Amino acid sequence: MTVNASQLIEKWISRQLPDAAMRWFQQQLESINDDLPSRSFDIAFGMIPRKLGKADLRLEDQDFADAAGLVAGWDPSRWSVDVAARILLLIKVSTVTNVAFATRFKEIHQTADVSELLALYYGLPLYHDPEALVEQAALGLRTNIRAEFEAIAHNNPFPAAHFEQNPWNNMVLKALFIGAMLEPVQGLDGRANPELARILSDYAHERWAADRAVSPELWRCIGPFAEGDLLDDFERVIESGNGTEKKAAALALKTAPESKRKDTLMAQLSMFNDDIENGQLTWSSIADEMFENALAVTQKLNTEVELTR
Fold first, then answer.
1. Closest residue by Cα to residue 201 from 219, 189, 186
2. How many CB atoms are located within 10 Å of the residue 80 CB?
3. b/e for 40-70, b at 16 or more Cβ within 10 A?
4. C-alpha 101: how far from its chain's center?
5. CA-to-CA distance for 92 and 71, rounded, in angstroms?
6. Cβ distance 146 to 179 under 8 Å?
7. For residue 255, what pLDDT is reported?
8. What is the mean pLDDT of the chain?
9. How many alpha carbons lie under 13 Å from residue 209 in its C-beta half-sphere?
């Protein structure tokens, strides 16, 4: 798997780089061997943006299909040339050097800048012996820098495939806490669990008590376990939530265990049934609506600032 992934990434890079830049990069790849001194790697790793640039990696539909065919969920849509090149170096280091890659990963992580950290995290599904990287990946989620957090949590199959329940639940809660979307989290529905539902319900109550908004996406993780007092939360959304929140509640309740109270609540949201059935109302459309609402608020605030000058 790793060799094929390496070849694919190298193809993407080579068709975009000038010949001189590509020759330099291939020399760096060829220099990696069992006895590679860490200092030599660090120099090459750090020089990549200067030598290769930071342009977005230009990918076509077939490239994404090839990636997904090699590793389920692999999504290089956010990669730049320097990120791709760094990941390719890291893949080779993970397979050919004597030092355990988990140790090398940790060493690189300790001194990495943000752009280097993004490469470390984006490449998680591709490195050799991924199980050895789980602890370090979970520690990486402690960051308050959203780009770093999202490099692990968004469009990345690694957490769903390798995290135990506790770090998975913490990741979902942290996403809500820092304002990161849940829609790009791969495996979100498959990893839903009763403990997470309870954690998120408690989080919603804390937000309400502080008179703060609750992300409509939160209900997606509660819906499959919405019984008893968890249905009280949905009743509150129906009574006082905005339009987007009510749409999210309708979607989430579709997955709830059958009960008379569920049916009663669903009846109050029946205006959304047709849109759910015909696929117009989905969690993806909820995410789009949240983004549009946030953009509208930002534009309004910017306008108010202009008017007060």
1. 219
2. 19
3. ebeebbeebbebbeeeebebeeebeebbeeb
4. 23
5. 17
6. yes
7. 97
8. 91
9. 6
Q: Vertex 253, ends 250 and 258: CA angle to 5°?
A: 140
Output phi, psi for 56, to 5 deg: -60, 140
DSSP assignment string, the chain: -HHHHHHHHHHHHHTTS-HHHHHHHHHHHHH--TT--HHHHHHHHHHHHHHH--PBP---HHHHHHHHHHSTT---TT-BHHHHHHHHHHHHHHHH-SS-HHHHHHHHHHH--HHHHHHHHHTGGGSSSGGGGHHHHHHHTT---HHHHHHHHSS-SHHHHH--HHHHHHHHHHHHHHT--STTSTTTTTT--HHHHHHHHHHHHHHHHTT----TTHHHHHGGG--TTHHHHHHHHHHH--HHHHHHHHHHHTTSPP-HHHHHHHHHTGGGHHHHHTTSS-HHHHHHHHHHHHHHHHHHHHHHHHHH-
| Average pLDDT over every residue of 48-70 | 96
- Taking only Cα atoms into account, the Rg of the chain, rounded to an integer number of angstroms, comes to 23
Q: Which residues pair with 56 in a beta bridge?
A: 80
Q: What are phi and psi of 87, to 5 degrees?
A: -65, -40
What pLDDT shows up at residue 294? 67
Number of residues assigned to the chain: 309
- Percent with pLDDT over 70 in the chain: 91
This prediction's pTM: 0.90
> Does the pLDDT at position 299 exceed 50?
no
How far, CA to CA in Å, does 196 sit from each of 108, 159, 171, 186? 32, 15, 10, 16
Q: What are the φ and ψ backbone dihedral angles of 102, each rounded to 5 degrees?
A: -60, -40
> From CA 237, how far away is CA 91, in angstroms rounded?
47
